[in-house]
Amino acid sequence: MVEQNLTRNISNFINELKKKEKREEFGYSFAEGKNILISCLQKNIPLKYIVLDKTKKELFNDILKKVDNSIIYWTDEQNLLKISSTKTSYFCITVFKTPDIIENVDLNTIKAIDNRNSSLFNEIERFLDREKFISAFLQISDPGNLGTIIRTSIGFNQTKIILFESHCDLFSPKVIRSSSGAIFSLEKIINISENLEEIFLNKIKNIKLKIGYAEKSINENNIIGDIEFYKNSQRFLPLLVLYGNEGKGIPERLQDIKDFSISIPQSNNIESYNLSISHAIITYSLYQQTKLQIIAKKS
User: Fold this and answer.
1) Looking at domain 8-97, which of 3.40.50.300, 3.10.20.30, 3.30.1330.30, 3.40.720.10 is its CATH number?
2) Could you tell me the pTM of the whole model?
3) pLDDT per residue as tens digits for the range 235-260
């Protein structure tokens, strides 16, 4: 079996993919790490190139038996770092076809939610019937947060999430790495066009769900109320949980839409939790409540 060395053309192509507009133009993305390669193979994501550190062949022997040798290229660590998006190459760069999981939602699509035959209406309704809650995020700016949120979501069977523009690029290498490959398990990203948050949240209430805003605790009374929510969250289902932007939170113009606030008990020694941590705590609580309820009904 003849081994191929990394070529300049492939290096240039990968460097081009560091730009969002080029990823969109070519339809390919890339990320570093063995776990990304494994996830692509597990989910049958079409691969274009695999670039590996030739001094670390023993790390990839078993994996490469499952891969067409014609897309494997070898190089040294120095050249890997030149095409990597990080200061560490992780010995592996995988270039893959960008999954078609983003459903862009414009004003006309949102207006159609009034019609129960709306595909968006039916899709969210079916998901809520199965999973009981769905998470939505206002303008996530940190790709590390977005990747971690995706990883947590998949861990709790939340295979659909709602994003409001403008948010960081879903298929940037940092988002993919931070998701640890979980992004390939997402069924759908419902991507709401910019400045349509208010009309979408009002229309989505036609599904007969409640809308809770994830907001920080500000006093003891809130904390007591939150403990009650976490103990009896099934009373609030089906539910859309809205998380604000990392810096700005949820704007005042959206406050009248919510049915209630969700905040997390905390000490006075911190201002607030990181967005991805808040999402993990609330998602775990809701998942625990809904799954225990389902198990109880079956037993």
Assistant:
1) 3.30.1330.30
2) 0.89
3) 778 899 999 988 888 999 999 999 88
